[in-house]
Design a protein that fits this description.
Layout (H helix, E strand, L loop, with lengths): L6 H48 L4 H17 L6 H14 L4 H12 L2 H16 L4 H30 L1 H21 L2
Length: about 190
């Protein structure tokens, strides 16, 4: 009889706000995971392209080989990778008669990260001006990408160490309580 029904709308609003916040947080985590994976895969993408270009393939031929290698890996049980999926989509655009340069630009834009925009610019510049210096530029980009990957790994290692501090202090508190309990009980 004296039930506080006035609190129900308040809890409903609170639950709705919580659900909205949680949904935004999940989207943010998914976006951050995608960006980390794209950055992690960038040196590999650039080195594969550089190897195929060094073997004498055209940019489009190298692109096709990288995508074909990824698809073969996926058929054998490999997991989906964002960078290679974006490359596959760009190749599909080229096969649908979208100009090659536009497909590269769209690839860079859809990845949304500076290294991929730079790679798309390099490929587009090469397509317009010819292959005179592409191998050298790809070599420099590959070295830069691997250096950036080392920095990213170092940063992630530092973040992991920081995340371990809270459990470490909690365990310290438990050990201190276990040591102090007998001393306090003996009084």
């Amino acid at each position: 009889e004296g039930k506080p029904l006035w609190a129900l709308p308040f809890f409903g609003i609170l639950a709705a706000a919580f659900c909205e916040t949680e949904e935004k947080e999940q989207k943010k985590r998914a976006r951050e995971r995608r960006e980390r994976e794209l950055l992690r895969d960038y040196p590999e993408v650039v080195s594969k392209l550089a190897v195929f270009l060094g073997a004498g393939l055209t940019v489009r031929g190298a692109w096709e080989q990288v995508v074909e290698s990824y698809e073969r890996n996926r058929r054998e049980g490999g997991r989906e990778r964002f960078a290679y999926e974006e490359m596959r989509q760009a190749l599909e655009q080229m096969e649908k008669k979208v100009p090659e340069g536009k497909a590269y630009q769209e690839f860079g834009r859809s990845c949304g990260l500076q290294p991929y925009l730079k790679l798309a610019g390099l490929l587009e510049q090469n397509r317009r001006e010819g292959t005179k210096n592409l191998r050298g530029m790809m070599g420099l980009e590959m070295a830069s990408a691997f250096e950036e990957r080392k920095n990213l790994a170092r940063k992630q290692g530092e973040e992991a160490g920081t995340k371990l501090l809270l459990p470490l202090f909690l365990m310290l508190g438990v050990v201190m309580a276990m040591v102090m309990a007998p001393a306090l009980l003996s009084f």
